[in-house]
Amino acid sequence: MLERPEAGERAVLVHLDLHAVTEKDELQEFKELVISAGVDTVAVISGARRTPDSKYFVGTGKAEEIREEVEREEADVVLVNHELSPVQERNLEHLLKCRVLDRTGLILDIFAQRARSHEGKLQVELAQLQHLSTRLVRGWTHLERQKGGIGLRGPGETQLETDRRLLNARIKQLKSRLNKVRKQREQSRRSRKRADVPTVSLVGYTNAGKSTLFNQLTEAGVYVADQLFATLDPTLRRVNLPDKQPMVLADTVGFIRHLPHDLVESFRSTLQETREADLLLHIVDASSEDRQLNIEQVNLVLEEIGADDCPQIEVYNKIDLLDGVTPYIERDENGIPVRVWVSAVQDKGLELVLDAVVERLQSERVIERICLPSQQGRLHARLYALGAVQHEEVAADGYWLMDLDLPRQTWDGLCKHEALADYILPSDQDPRLAAGGEAQ
């Protein structure tokens, strides 16, 4: 197996355009990823094809051009702005005589550098091992069987089989540990729900300014840098809203185009904070020419993790880089805040963000009185577990008259799965007569 230097690599970047128009934006983003990884770019080679080559991805002629550039620049690694198959990666390494990393491998390397918490390190290792499991063959093609002879006979496995078995055991162990972390997070979320403390999660494209905004609102001192994936580990802080009510604000990892599937799977426990949030603040780089495309990419990832139904406010950040734009709240036809224009780095308009959060949290709550029959004991217990019951009376015939206050998202889910809307008590009905009519 090739030697893998730890740092100071000189890299040749490869970008293949598979469309009629050159994807300059994706190439620029790839260069920023390389900078974030701490690698020095010595050359950029681009080309165009209708379809990838099955052997080298880039075609034989282009592969030879890359080999000559690697030799001339004495490069340590070749970084390809696409996802390579294990065979393509192996063939390129044999031809170029240096390490080859695709886009997924590069993002995993950046994540490995950024991970600080125990949970973050577990998630990164899991993603790396899942990615590596399909690439084990390239390092052991020269070995047929473990050595034979007296005292050297093994269990009859190939070295590849042994490695794969050990790898699968480690993956199983990591998933078990992350499952424990997930349960701990769920317990914390249940405690917040019982205390009726809403959770607001920051989401957005990487380097949109989430951590800067988070620091301004919480004074948390989270690491901030003008680079992709500066934040990896989630951070939660308690913030008091203008109406004196507390909320929990969560800063999460940024999203990116073509986010590797392994990463989404591995970081599912972290992204659970986003999926279970009462409100999402979608941070957008207002100065980016690709802001609409970035918004769509973030929404795609939110859909993949099951958070697309969460109410959302778009926060257009970095207006200090735009001409003539001042902080303001943008509302829909019903007067509900849907977008806020701010500058986190200059601390402009952040009070508007909190005002918009208060309005949306209030508008996203359902206050109803229901009449629940005694046969619905499980639903009765669930409403208490959710912290939704504000007041309760018990009628003589055993019906529960309950005043509820809960998030609209939770209400919609209960109406869908528990038919909770069937037990709503009309406002003009005497609660003492409910048992004889509406709740039947």
Give me a quick take on this structure.
With 440 residues, the chain is of the alpha/beta class. Helices cover 39% and strands 20% of the residues.
Give structural notes.
With 440 residues, this protein is an alpha/beta fold. The chain is built from 13 helices and 14 strands. A hairpin with a 5-residue loop joins strand 10 and strand 11. Helix 1 runs parallel beside helix 4 and helix 5 packs antiparallel against helix 6. The longest helix has 36 residues.
Q: Which residues form runs of ≥5 with pLDDT under 50?
A: 1-5, 138-149, 433-440
Give the helices and strands as they follow along the chain: EHEHEHEHHHEHEEHHEHEEEHEHEEH
Structural class: alpha/beta
> Major sheet, described briefly?
7 strands, mixed
The count of β-strands is 14
Shape: globular
**Structure annotation, total helices:** 13
Widest β-sheet, arrangement of strands: 6-7-5-8-9-11-10
Could you give the topology of this structure?
Elements (H helix, E strand, L loop, with lengths): L9 E8 L6 H13 L3 E9 L11 H14 L3 E4 L5 H11 L2 E3 L1 H12 L3 H15 L26 H36 L4 E6 L5 H9 L16 E6 L5 E6 L9 H6 L1 H8 L3 E7 L5 H14 L7 E6 L10 E4 L5 E5 L8 H14 L1 E8 L4 H9 L3 E6 L5 E8 H11 L22
Parallel strand pairs: 1-2, 1-3, 3-4, 5-7, 5-8, 8-9, 9-11
Antiparallel strand pairs: 6-7, 10-11, 12-14, 13-14
Provide the descriptors you would attach to this structure in a database record.
440 residues, alpha/beta, seven-stranded mixed β-sheet, four-stranded parallel β-sheet, 13 helices, 39% helix, 20% strand, disordered N terminus, disordered C terminus
